[in-house]
Amino acid sequence: MSLIKSINARRVWDSRGNPTVEVDVILENGVLGRAIAPAGASRGTREAIDLRDGGPKLRGKDIQNALASVNGPIASALRGMDASDQAEVDAAILALDASALKETLGGNATVATSLAVLHAAATDARKPLWRHVADHYNCTPSLPLPEIQIFGGGAHAGRRVDIQDFMVVVPGAFSFDEVMEITSEIYFAAGDIMAQRGKLAGVADEGGWWPMFDSNEEALETLVAAIEKAGETPGKNVAISLDIAASEFGSNGKYRLALEDREMDSGALIDMLGRWMDAYPILSIEDPVGEDDRDGMIEFTRRFGDHVQIIGDDYLVTNANLVKEASSDAACNAVLIKVNQAGTVSESVETFMAAQAAGWGAIVSARSGESEDTSISHLSTGLGGGQLKVGSFQRSERMVKWNECLRIQDELGAHSFVGGAPFKGTWWDRA
Ligand code: 2PG
Ligand code: MG
């Protein structure tokens, strides 16, 4: 056991060129733990706040106040604490901020600190982070099943299409390494098809292709064509995963697909997604309706919950109580775990455990604003049994996380890959 000697925050820059918080935690024996806060663009209204300074400088996005939270109150409170007691450390952080959404300290300050402490404890125990997480939380580690973006949309691509993430999953793969190879083939096949058809504008925030489609459905047709061009059978080894991110184009049960100039209510949106699921091999859907559309989420889950994975992201904001509530509502059957939505490691793990208790899936996820930090690759492996969403197959802030999983694969063994287990009970499992 080693005690925390000092904590220092510095300003670094994320994958969108915005300032963000990096925290160094140094233990009395000299061990260093370091982590960087990510940042979302399509944010849930109930997630922890990124504390930004406002004003004209850096488009209001500077984080001097968040740095001051870490270097001031957080550092004072944590100095002398046992870094291996993550729950105590996170409780001490929470005790400094009585606000609902960590407005006082900033979720960017708390998440970078909390993760840096986790790293320090792992290094002090001479364990890779994934192993420390597995031992600390008494989990069986396994390499996650990735979901990988092929086209970006919504808030990540200038709203060029309404739907945010068009992704593939490869539940039929035998190893993490094989998922990477198959996804690479699909990613470049999609780029080739789009270039040939004059539909390719570049690369979106998470590395997926920035599309110039005429409808949202054209993305689905193109994705199926890309899977086939890559030599795979859609719906067999490879399936489609969507993040609708519906809160970005609707509220109060009213939605507007700008690309198609169509307005619809919640029922019509659910019907449209139902038609897509009939026509395309869609295995997972995130935020199919808005974060405020409880009736819509319950209805969607009633209709499709025994068919596909239904993930709450903005709907659940990595909050264990919301997972419990949704579980008793029979809304969703899986949760996205974003550590910065919760604001600490302990709250994120608590949400993961709540999902497991509900018999739900859990997908550890990056944000659209990312960095070289690879904590989530370790978290999802250490907690085990899950899935990992990192963005696409280009840009180093994405690839660094996939590549870290390949290094973990060498330590843990290729056999530890979860494969299609997260999709037990879906149409894919029955097919
Ligand atoms: C999401 C994430 C990642 P953001 O909605 O799931 O794709 O986006 O980080 O912008 O919230
Ligand atoms: Mg989402």
Find the CATH topology of the largest domain: TIM Barrel
Summarize the helix and strand pattern as letters: EEEHHHHEEHEEHEEEEHEHEHEHHEHEHH
What Rg, in angstroms, do the CA atoms define?
21 Å
- Binned strand content: 15-25%
By CATH reckoning, the class of the largest domain would read Alpha Beta
Instruction: Give the CA-CA distance, first to last residue.
Output: 50 Å
Shape: globular
Per CATH, the architecture of the largest domain is: Alpha-Beta Barrel
The strand order across the widest sheet is 4-5-8-12-13-14-15-16
Which structural class best describes the helix and strand composition? alpha/beta
**Low-confidence residue ranges:** none
What bound compounds does this protein have? 2-phosphoglyceric acid, magnesium ion
What's the overall average pLDDT, rounded? 97
- Tally the beta strands: 16
Count of folded domains: 2
Going by CATH, the homologous superfamily of the largest domain would be: Enolase-like C-terminal domain
Major sheet description: 8 strands, mixed, barrel
Percent in helix = 25-40%
Descriptive account of the structure:
This protein has an eight-stranded mixed beta barrel with strand order 4-5-8-12-13-14-15-16, surrounded by six helices. Strands 1-2-3 form a three-stranded antiparallel β-sheet. The protein has a three-stranded antiparallel β-sheet with strand order 9-10-11. By secondary structure, the protein is α/β, with parallel strands linked by helices. It has two domains: 4-126, 2-Layer Sandwich (Enolase-like, domain 1), CATH 3.30.390.10; 145-430, Enolase-like C-terminal domain (TIM Barrel). It starts with a strand and ends with a helix. It is globular, with a radius of gyration of 21 Å. The protein is built from 14 helices and 16 strands. Helix content is 39%, strand content 19%. The model has no long low-confidence stretch (mean pLDDT 97). The longest helix has 21 residues, at 176-196. The site of 2-phosphoglyceric acid has 15 residues, from loops. The site of magnesium ion (MG) has 5 residues, from loops.
